[in-house]
Amino acid sequence: MIVAFSVTPLGVGEDVGEYVADAVRVVRESGLPHRTDAMFTSLEGEWEECMDVVRRAVAAVEARAPRVSLVLKADIRPGVIDGLTAKVATVDRYLDEG
């Protein structure tokens, strides 16, 4: 499964990068395949693994912020591995054929 999620601290002011870094640190330390961009972090693994990482990432932000917003989207497709790379490669292939 691939999970794309965003954790946003609320009530801490406009600059939230330091708080978001706490969440991303949890993802990077998880050992699961992941990518972070300006809007979301995508994570790939089994249901229990992914949800545990999301839970811990939220907890890391929640430890320092009075309120936390979580946006989550999941692609649940058993048997697919390396989806983070394969999905992008498929789109790139179509673009190259252009």
From TrEMBL:
Any single GO CC term annotated in Swiss-Prot or TrEMBL for this entry: cytosol
Please name the SUPFAM superfamilies in this protein's record.
MTH1187/YkoF-like
InterPro entries according to UniProt: MTH1187/YkoF-like (IPR029756), Thiamine_BP (IPR002767), UPF0045_domain (IPR051614)
- Please state every residue range assigned to the domain named Thiamine-binding protein: 3-91
Family, as annotated: Belongs to the UPF0045 family.
The identity of this protein, by name, is Thiamine-binding protein
Q: What species is this protein from?
A: Streptomyces reniochalinae
